[in-house]
Amino acid sequence: xSNAAQLLVSMLDELGHxxxxxxxxxxxxxxxxxxxxxxxxxxxxxxxxxxxxxxAVGNLIGRLASANPKAKTLLLGSHLxxxxxxxxxxxxxxxxxxxxxxxxxxxxxxxxxxxxxVLGFSEEEGVRFASAYLGSKGYCGKLTxxxxxxxxxxGVSVSEAIQRWNGLxxxxxxxxxxxxxxxxxxxxxxxxxxxxxxxxxxxGPVLEAKKLAVGVVSAIAGQSRFKxxxxxxAGHAGTTPMALRRDALAGVAEFISGVEAIxxxxxxxxxxxxxxxxxxxxxxVIPGSVVHTLxxxxxxxxxxxxxxxxxxxxxxxxxGRRKLSRAWQRTQxxxxxxxxxxxxxxxxxxxxxxxGKSLSLVSGAGHDGVVMSxxxxxxxxxxxxxxxxxxxxxxxxxPKDLAVALAxxxxxxxxxxxxxxx
Length: 422
Ligand SMILES: [Zn+2]
Description:
Blueprint: H1 3-15, H2 32-47, E1 51-54, E2 60-64, E3 73-79, H3 92-107, E4 115-121, H4 134-139, H5 145-149, H6 158-165, H7 175-180, E5 193-201, H8 206-210, E6 214-220, E7 222-231, E8 235-236, H9 248-265, E9 270-272, E10 276-279, E11 285-286, E12 289-298, H10 301-322, E13 325-334, E14 337-338, H11 341-355, E15 360-363, H12 368-372, E16 378-383, H13 399-421
Parallel strand pairs: 3-4, 3-5, 5-16, 6-15
Antiparallel strand pairs: 1-2, 2-4, 6-14, 6-16, 7-12, 7-13, 8-11, 9-12, 10-12
Helix pairs in contact: 1-3, 1-13, 2-3, 3-13, 9-10, 11-13
Bound molecules: zinc ion.
Zinc ion (ZN) binds near residues 79 and 124.
């Protein structure tokens, strides 16, 4: 393994020990561990020749200016926050890998004809405020008044947390004034940017099945999430004849198998019922009501809507036949994000050069790239992870695979540089 790859692996290891909770890895938005993570990664950035700053929402930004001040800026990054009891590989490789690649190019005496910004986003996982992408939203100037008013488990609002982070004392009357004074606007205008590149572990099993270290993302899947409530009639499990029952759980069981069948029939559609609450919930009582979630994703928004319509018709049929009532509540809706064809083509060339062949993948998981796509074209490189496991302490990407990803990003920067020089 090259010295650069070894440096990457040891930095990932060191960062994996920076946590808010002893004994397990947890780093959440604007926490003390995030301060320490920013300090460590900031030092790495400085050592690679980058100029470092932390913005108002805690994003770590390292900038390498080109000799041409009028050049555009290429952004590379991912998130430094984690879920609770996390693994070490979800997020940090996308921040550390570009830093190591830039250090390697510096060592080789390669000067890039564009500016580069490496971004370590302060919030992607949605742990502290149950709402994801606060870091990239802040960077893009997209934090809304609704975002700023959300509160964590201790009743601290996003706005107050940001003010504390910036050393301001939140006061009731000056709450909004304080945040406005922090200039939460986009870090760049669209016209100044070349694009955003994110390296991330796959968090799925496809690369492992294909025996490939890395793959290139064609699109990030769009996602609809719902809370469904089915209501029938509770009754005695011994005395109510089968023909007279309105069993909500039996209806939901039929619905779940039907949803699975629909998703299996439609290529690329994934649909999941992940939680289920049965009431009243006793062995000798017919379930009177069931509340459950439904998560539906596809890389093509039209196909996702077709899938949802088929699922809706299924629910109507089951409810009608079983005399159940049902209510749908939409809790999340994100459109699919298509990756930039030109940046993706560059990335594919680099993957072919390093790995021999390239594989195109849809990212079923959401990423900072979803938010960044509103500011600039995005491209993503996924790295194989063991058993497709993520959001778990056993999450693992091998040093060998990370070295492949590092070689791809270094090659990509060189190709883009050659192209920009003309
Ligand atoms: Zn992630």
